[in-house]
Each structure stands twice: as structure tokens, then as C-alpha cells.
Design goal:
Strand content: 15-25%
Bound molecules: flavin-adenine dinucleotide
Distance between the termini: 10 Å
Radius of gyration: 23 Å
Length: 468
């Protein structure tokens, strides 16, 4: 696919839609050239455009489609796979100005928001009406549009699922400029293909999300965190199915080992309880009353003692609870600080996590690479980071390591990305292990939405063309 160059006439046409101050062609474009991923290099867009409403997005897309100019949608740029990097140049279409909470509907337990609304804004707006958005995909400055586009996950997936579990409908602009509405304020719907779910997780390759209808729940009364040490990671992981079989449904179950705990202590200066133990589960529970939370915690404790745990730490007060949660949230910056070379986000069946981590670490050790692993034990999502000093030789070794890890993960019935998406960072690894028939179907779906291939080219399975 080859694309047309952005001309000064084209920039003027964009300015006629959104006003001159919302069309950036100078140094300010730099802030739109990258995201938070570690691998992919930054690429400067030819122009950044910041529409304020759906009509403007539609007019921009019509114009870009007519002229064959690539368009990369962008939320807050917190993505970890390079999805918002405009690798074919052209336009970055930033949704930052479309940041209004349109409605919180208490009767129907839902909110309608523009795509540039951040997670923190949504939590606040829902909370003010006594309602709750239960998913927690880590970075609260991310936008809802970005969460929808990446089907963001996070630590609360065991009980609540991921972003797609809470999206009732969308408004989206197709690459041709047509506006579609999907879903609605209802639970059941068997009226044709589910385009809401198709667009969720499509990483800005099928349509630009311009409005999101989100399901909300009631605020849970009480919450607790259990921090449980085990002799080995295998013991910890083997406890997880039994916790769920005991009839309790925690919000999240995280696993971690001594190496990351000690790194986070060094990075933050905060002391973590029982930091000399080998492996841990961090279990988060919610219920309506203190008694219910206590009963759930006791059941979980009993199961864990049966799997070799010799202690269950319950933070004694709100401050201790906050510190423990914050320590978990600091894993990513901690590893960045110690020289993160790559970010693996594989998902495997949760019963396979211990075996997968053990095999992966062995392969890494054999290659002379230090590999740190932690993740979401309750939903199978394993985060692994090779760490060290970045040199061309090390990068080549890390690439070989990742090829092996994806093969091992797939052989265990896994998938390449659990929550961060493929973007550009994982595109080639995905193509290396994906079923070709499935990739072909994905390409046909892409063509149906985007006949000229202008929307977020080079992502998921696609290699970008050059401007001519
Ligand atoms: C410290 C840290 C912790 C994180 N923790 C988690 C975590 O626990 N779980 C998790 O899932 N993620 C996590 N992330 C990743 C990131 O926050 C999510 O991927 C988030 O969904 C990205 O949102 P964004 O607004 O920043 O999107 P961007 O990075 O701007 O874009 C991401 C992708 O979505 C597309 N896109 C953005 N907006 C739209 C739109 N309106 N319409 C169509 N396409 C669009 C872009 O083209 C791109 O492909 C973390 C990131 C950081 C930096």
C-alpha cells in the first residue's frame, strides 16, 4: 500500500474543519510520536489534528480517505505496544479534546462518555452518583477510547472481566467517514453481528471510537487484600484453582516472586512484609459487609495453608493496604528503572502459569538473560521482562528469547497478548505463531471497514506502505 503525502493544501483543509490552533505541524508533534512502549522507535507524524466532536472526526476521515493519507488515532499515549505510533506518517488524530462525560444514568446503571475521558474522570463521575466502574487497567491517565481500542485488562479481571465486559455500545467513525452506532442501554441483543465487540480490541485499525456506553455497578461496601507467602511459585499457582473452587470469587489474584519484591523495595524505599520469602499471591476481595469480607479471607487463607503457605498477611490499616497496592502498581516503573529491555504480555491457562514461568526462566538463563516475571495468576496473564543493558547484541538475543517464549506459550494453549495488544511491538511475533486462516479473515474484515487501508496502518498484522 502506498500513501499520499500531506501537502500544505491538505493542512489548510484540516484547519477549516477544526480551527488552526488544533492542527499541529511544528515541534509540538513530538509529543504525539511515541507511546509508553519500550521497543518501537518514535515516528513524527506529518500533522496532528485535534477534533472536538464526531462530525469533525467524520469530515477528517472523509478527507483523509479521499486523499489516501494514513490516520493514527491516539488517546493518552499510555499504550505499551506502539499502537499509537504513526509509523506510516500522515495524521495523528488525537481524541484529547473529546473528553466530556455526557451522562451518568442511574436507572440503567450506565454512563455515556466521549473517548478522551480518562479512567480517573470516569471513576469520579460514577462515584459521585453512587455507581462504580469495576475494571482497573493500571494506568488511570489512559482514555476510555484507548481502553476500548486495546480491550484493556488489569488486576480485577478475575471477578469483573476486562474492558469488553463493560461496554454496552459505541459510536464510531469508519475510515470512509460514515458514523455508526452499536449496542444500547440493554443487556440482551441478538440483532445481527456484534460490531461493538468487533471494534473493541481492534487497536484503532477498524474505526475511530467517538462515544462509549459503559455499564456500571453499585459500589461494593468493603474490600481487603491478602498477601500470602509460599515456598515456591508452583505452590502459589497450584492454590489458585482451589481458591476459586472453594466458592469465593476474588476481584484479582496476583503472583510475584522474591526478585521483583526486592527490586520494588529498592526503587520505592518501602519495606514489603515477608520480603525474604520465595513466592507470593496477592488476593483482592470485595463484599458488602466486613463479615462477608472476613469469611472470604478465612476461606482463602485455609486453601493457601493447604498449599504450603505459612502465613497470611492482612494489612492492619488503610495506609498499609495502600502501600501494598502501590508497591504492586510500581512494578512497571521499577523494572523500567532497572533496565527493561522488553515487555512480554502472554496469557496461558492459569493452571500452566508456574510451568510456563519455570520454562521461560530456564530458556532465558541458558541464553544468559535475566528475566523477571509476575502477573495476574487469576486470569493467566503473565508479564515478563528481560532486563539489562541495551546493546545491539543483547537486543538480538532478547528477540531470539521472545520467539522461544511465544512458542512455549502457544504450545500451552496461550495467546500472544493478554491485555496490551499487538500494536507494532508484538505484530511480528503474532504473525509468527498465528493461524494463517485467521489472519486472512482478519485482513478481509479490515478491508471491509477500511478499503483504502488508511486507518492505523502497520499494526496487528499489517506492514505499512510509504508515502509517495
Ligand atoms: C504504568 C502503566 C501501567 C499500565 N497498566 C496496564 C494494565 O494494568 N492493564 C492494561 O490493559 N493496560 C495497562 N497499561 C497500558 C495502557 O494504559 C492501555 O493500553 C490503555 O488502554 C491505553 O490507553 P490510551 O488512551 O493511552 O491509548 P493510546 O496509547 O493513545 O492508544 C492505544 C491504542 O488505541 C488506539 N486508540 C486510542 N484511542 C482510540 C479511539 N478513540 N478510537 C480508536 N482507536 C483508539 C490507538 O490507535 C492505539 O492503537 C499500562 C500502561 C502504563 C504506562
Amino acid at each position: 500500500m502506498s500513501y499520499m503525502k500531506v501537502t500544505s493544501g491538505f493542512v489548510q483543509a484540516l484547519a477549516a474543519i477544526v480551527g488552526e490552533k488544533n492542527v499541529l505541524t511544528g515541534d509540538e508533534r513530538k509529543a504525539y510520536s511515541r507511546d509508553e512502549s519500550t521497543g518501537p522507535v518514535a515516528v513524527m507524524p506529518d500533522v496532528v489534528v485535534r477534533p472536538e466532536n464526531t462530525e469533525a472526526v467524520s469530515r477528517i476521515m472523509k478527507l483523509a480517505n479521499e486523499h489516501g493519507i494514513p490516520v493514527t488515532p491516539r488517546g493518552a499515549g499510555t499504550g505499551l505496544s506502539g499502537g499509537a505510533i504513526p509509523i506510516a506518517g500522515g495524521i495523528v488524530l488525537s481524541l484529547e479534546r473529546m473528553n466530556k462525560i455526557i451522562e451518568v444514568d442511574r436507572d440503567n446503571f450506565c454512563a455515556t462518555v466521549e473517548p478522551g475521558v480518562t479512567l480517573i474522570q470516569l471513576y469520579k463521575a460514577a462515584g459521585e452518583q453512587g455507581l462504580y466502574y469495576p475494571t482497573y487497567p493500571g494506568e488511570t491517565s489512559a482514555t476510555i477510547g484507548g481502553n476500548v481500542a486495546t480491550n484493556a485488562g488489569g488486576m480485577r479481571a478475575v471477578r469483573y472481566g476486562v474492558t469488553r465486559s463493560f461496554i454496552l455500545g459505541l459510536q464510531a467513525v469508519l475510515p470512509t467517514g460514515e458514523v455508526i452506532e452499536t449496542g444500547g442501554k440493554f443487556v440482551k441483543n441478538t440483532s445481527g453481528y456484534d460490531l461493538t465487540q468487533l471494534i473493541i480490541g481492534s487497536e484503532g485499525t477498524l474505526a475511530i471510537v467517538t462515544r462509549v456506553l459503559i455499564k456500571l455497578t453499585l459500589i461494593p461496601g468493603k474490600s481487603e487484600i491478602l498477601f500470602i507467602p509460599f515456598p515456591t511459585l508452583k505452590d502459589a499457582i497450584e492454590a489458585v484453582p482451589d481458591i476459586l473452587k472453594a466458592g469465593v470469587l476474588p476481584v484479582g489474584i496476583e503472583f510475584m516472586e522474591k526478585d521483583i519484591i526486592q527490586m520494588v523495595e529498592k526503587f520505592t524505599g518501602v519495606s514489603i512484609p515477608m520480603h525474604d520469602r520465595n513466592a507470593f499471591l496477592m488476593v483482592m476481595v470485595e463484599a458488602e459487609t466486613d463479615e462477608q469480607v472476613q469469611a472470604t479471607a478465612e476461606k482463602i487463607g485455609d486453601v493457601c495453608f493447604g498449599h504450603g503457605a505459612d502465613d497470611v498477611f492482612l494489612p492492619p490499616n488503610a495506609q498499609a493496604k495502600k502501600e501494598l497496592l502501590e508497591a504492586r502498581e510500581k512494578f512497571y516503573p521499577t523494572i523500567s528503572h532497572f533496565g527493561m529491555l522488553e515487555l512480554v504480555d502472554i496469557v496461558v491457562p492459569r493452571s500452566k502459569i508456574a510451568e510456563f514461568v519455570a520454562q521461560s526462566k530456564q530458556i532465558a538463563t541458558d541464553m544468559g538473560i535475566n528475566l523477571v516475571a509476575y502477573g495476574h495468576a487469576g486470569d493467566g496473564n503473565v508479564h515478563m521482562h528481560p532486563i539489562g543493558e541495551r546493546t545491539p547484541e543483547v537486543e538480538a538475543k532478547v528477540h531470539k528469547l521472545l520467539v522461544e517464549l511465544y512458542k512455549v506459550g502457544m504450545a500451552m494453549g496461550g495467546a500472544v497478548s493478554g491485555e496490551h495488544g499487538l500494536g507494532i511491538a508484538k505484530r511480528d511475533y503474532f504473525l509468527g505463531v498465528a493461524d494463517p486462516a485467521r489472519v486472512e479473515l482478519m485482513k478481509r474484515i479490515k478491508t471491509a471497514f477500511d478499503p483504502r487501508g488508511i486507518l492505523n496502518p502497520g499494526k496487528l498484522f499489517d506492514r505499512p506502505g510509504k508515502a509517495s
